[in-house]
């Protein structure tokens, strides 16, 4: 089984981290192919960055489809271009937010999302509302760090995320925490150990859930909503 | 007051019709500038077309911002890239769906949306859900016509839209009808006369509502969600 | 175009302030006619005052309809008698709450409403829920001031409203603030300057939105919900 | 225990029927006092009638409060002025819609409301939405009869209601039916026998529920929302 | 009229308290029969206890049905097995949570639930969501006491509940408080006097509401959802 | 990895079919252990059957936990006792409905559930509402067949399910169909081929999703809601 894991931003170091997390999660016999969208912003911080990342993302998906990929992970927590990807994909397509919050809803009665910047909070709130899980989401919080600080070993980004998780447990009475940025993919295990709360990383969960859907023979429906783009 | 009305698809004939509708609706002292996004699909039929229209749309917005525009109408009923436009805009930004369904909710206790193709139905349902108006929206229907058939005088597109409105009134018990495509902008008056139900075109309403917000001195909030894109 | 702006309470000083705000917002060629409902409470603080204001309000609307008014603003944030007004009106009818929260939802991803007394908070929460915007409304707050304190230059009402807005920005993480009382119509600009957050006054927005609907040729639907009252 | 049952419209024949239904439902030791609001419409068909009935209704409530009533039923399915009544009442206050749909939600997983005229359908839909029971309400239907036809023995109103209930069971797959007009109070038992589906009349249920709340020592909360009207 | 009040847990002392509260609330001519489910947990603290209490609860209901009971109260705030009870019951069946929160929603615009342990909070939140009253429920709080501490006169459980109610009034701005455990049935009056806020006990309300439904001739619908269990 | 797949009803033939479906879906290195709850109804048709199946189901889970199982599938579409199972389980626990509708929501913009008997329709509607997916669920339909007819090769159950799916596609405009009974686990592929719409079986999806969560190192949160049952 071949799964494409696309990083919609153009930071290759982040792709490497993401692909490592996907490979760690993937089952036997699954080949993970990483891709970095080109011509896209270095990080996705808000609606504009998200929109500018989509054509590059779609090019990666089209390329992979031409080579016969079985399923696709869009490795960004803002779930950019998911509907568009689903139209051109044959197999299942998942973004990190959808995968992670649906997983969280299976493991705990409530969860909090911890993301990077305050500007991403309403983006994620709207996604969670659309996925129908507002009643299980205690709050979307930001650790007040730029996305790329997570790539900088000298920054205190990890500590800020840990501190925000501890605040979430204390103030939100949440039972699980979802990491709200693909760049946190390598931190889940450490953060869970440090805080004592289940911490969910979207990269691993999305990869393995796409694998699950493919293994069950399921594909993206081609009736109406996600049917292939019309030729004009 | 200067209002930009952008057609996110690349069909210039459609832009002409849209600009005419905007100009007809605009108040005294308002200058409407039309723009056609370039490098975008000829029509927006589904998520993929929508995503591919956004960079071209944003270029038009950036260009208008540089020239000091006061408000912006994104003249497509799928409300593409609205969040992204709001990040780079100073004044208010409205898409057709948001403007039209909010207007409909002020004029009737319920409404039905009539759009072009079945594939656009779930796109619009999701928008209406996000705008919080599902409880007033009886149904989103399609007249089973491609968008560009509305540009073809020889097609029976107009009749199909009229027939679908009559079905909506009969079957949905709706009190108003929202036209779910920018290409129907010139039909609202005729359809209303033919069917006896208030018919709402998004182009006029969006234009005049942006004008209303500008006239009240209101601008897009620059706190968090729609703050200007970060430089990396 | 003639727009009636009715103050449903009987305090003429408040009508004057409201009409001034409406006139400031209205476009070229729009005549604003102010009216004060008679035999109604001096201020509308809660459900009882609201109910007692409606027959006087409806009399003003009937009178204006007889003279051929094009649209109507009910200048109270509790949106009293809107459905009843819509039944007897030909043109569009808007209350301040509906206009202001729908405007806020177009300018920011979230907003907080700041009203006068704690007793008005649940009234407004119920309205916002009915308009489908609970998911964008962070909180409805009160500045703990009686409505008529806003008419008393010697009171510290203005300062209390400003302080409450600052608390809203800090505690609610809202991106815009809606003023939850018609008596605050003259404060929006000052409060916005003082607090750095977009502050939305319902009087101006409702006036200009009614104008927008009228300009687009839209009227209140006469099918079912808002059809003219039955003769018995 | 003294319970006031107010008919907000001015048709005394209807009050008689309502009081009979209330008395039939009331427990031992409960005195039902009927009242007909004066100066109000002969029937309540839509928002305007509803609004015009409220001052007369409130006068009845004030009068009863002065005499020490324990609880109040507002005997109209549009639940007019309930919030206002609660502000001036000491004991519990219930309208027919709230009582009946909450009762229905306890007896069946879903229900349909059958009311008189199409114009009342959206009024009731909005109430049900406000009471949080949209997910259990299959549909609000009208039997296409004016309210006062129910008072005319020569009309076929009863048969039309029966026919509509049968359609509801067939088409809506509902498990119970709520009668959506106080004027149907005498029909519940007959309709239930004729149709084989539980049929709920709001007058009986509201009366006995108010009695239940009073018996438990519960009164309308006087904190904020329903606190007594402010003196100006 | 005969009403069964079943305590689904096996603590007889709690049954005694519950039956006393039910008898105090019941009207003239109503016989309350208490029952303690056997083979069930000593207290219901969470999903597992709840599930393990249901077969014993259903046995009590079957036994009472055989003897011709008119209505049933399931005296636990987690509303265990309500759907199952409704299938085998002829008359109405109510759990404490459904009865109490629906009563609260009639007496105040908002309420807070105060329960025993933190683990019960999400159970109750899910119930309130299912009953459609999330928008009136400010918060579900726990007083951090085990259920059986309420049976221990030497514990400080009562004081902890009182303190939590005071925090609810202060922090949640609620207008009423619902006691979230059957074991608090004897505290409502004292707590209301101590805190000045209406305090609602589910036992009394559920008993008297079942009585109300029975008195109105209403039974559990036997169409689909609550029809009698199929024989295999 | 060891996954327990429990059939909560006592029909061993059904367990065999379920285990086969689970094994077909499971990844390399996953051992599926089937279990049939004992002392439970032969099929789960409604709330009563569901409740009576839970203690037997919990016994199977406890037994498996003692032997160190990694994750658990509760193989019934009514999701019986899921919260209770999660309290006593260490790893993830999924019911068929939750798994299948969340999967469907990832593959199509809307879906319809086709179950066996009309009495199960409201049970599933309530589950879907609780999972937050009502807005994507077009309808829950029944094929009007008893559960055990699916075990009878001589019945026309399969044909009735196929016919109901075709009606769903036609009338509901759904883009995918979820099979609403564990006994349909062997039909998904055939039904999908016959109807041309993606058909989702919960057994396979739940198994592979539990596997996904386990593979990501995720366990059921032990904070509050799903913490281990208290010892009394």
From TrEMBL, chains A, B, C, D, E, F:
The enzyme's E.C. designation: 5.1.99.5
Enzymatic reactions: a D-5-monosubstituted hydantoin = a L-5-monosubstituted hydantoin; D-5-benzylhydantoin = L-5-benzylhydantoin; D-5-isobutylhydantoin = L-5-isobutylhydantoin
For this UniProt entry, the molecular function terms from Gene Ontology, in alphabetical order, are: amino-acid racemase activity; hydantoin racemase activity
Q: Which InterPro entries match?
A: Asp/Glu/hydantoin_racemase (IPR015942), Hydantoin_racemase-like (IPR052186), Iso_Racemase_Enz_sf (IPR053714)
* Lineage: superkingdom: Bacteria
Q: What class of enzyme is it?
A: isomerase
Q: Which family does it belong to?
A: Belongs to the HyuE racemase family.
List the PANTHER family hit by this protein, alphabetically.
PROTEIN DCG1
Q: What is this protein called?
A: Hydantoin racemase
Please name the source species. Answer: Halovulum marinum
Q: Source taxonomy lineage?
A: Bacteria, Pseudomonadati, Pseudomonadota, Alphaproteobacteria, Rhodobacterales
């Amino acid at each position: 089984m071949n799964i494409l894991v696309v990083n919609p931003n153009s930071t290759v170091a982040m792709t490497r981290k993401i692909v490592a997390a996907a490979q760690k999660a993937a089952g036997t016999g699954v080949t993970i192919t990483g891709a970095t969208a080109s011509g896209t912003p270095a990080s996705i911080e808000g609606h504009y960055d998200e929109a500018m990342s989509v054509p590059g993302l779609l090019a990666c998906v089209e390329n992979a489809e031409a080579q016969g990929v079985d399923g696709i992970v869009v490795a960004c927590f803002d779930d950019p271009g998911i509907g568009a990807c689903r139209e051109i994909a044959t197999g299942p397509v998942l973004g990190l937010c959808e995968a992670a919050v649906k997983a969280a809803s299976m493991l705990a009665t409530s969860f909090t999302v911890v993301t990077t910047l305050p500007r991403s909070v309403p983006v994620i709130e709207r996604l969670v509302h659309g996925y129908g899980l507002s009643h299980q989401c205690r709050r979307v919080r930001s650790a007040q760090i730029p996305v790329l600080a997570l790539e900088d070993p000298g920054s205190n980004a990890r500590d800020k995320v840990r501190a925000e998780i501890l605040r979430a447990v204390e103030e939100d009475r949440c039972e699980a925490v979802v990491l709200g940025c693909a760049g946190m993919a390598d931190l889940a295990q450490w953060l869970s150990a440090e805080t004592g709360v289940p911490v969910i990383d979207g990269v691993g969960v999305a990869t393995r859930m796409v694998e699950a859907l493919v293994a069950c023979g399921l594909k993206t429906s081609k009736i109406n909503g996600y049917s292939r783009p019309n030729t004009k």
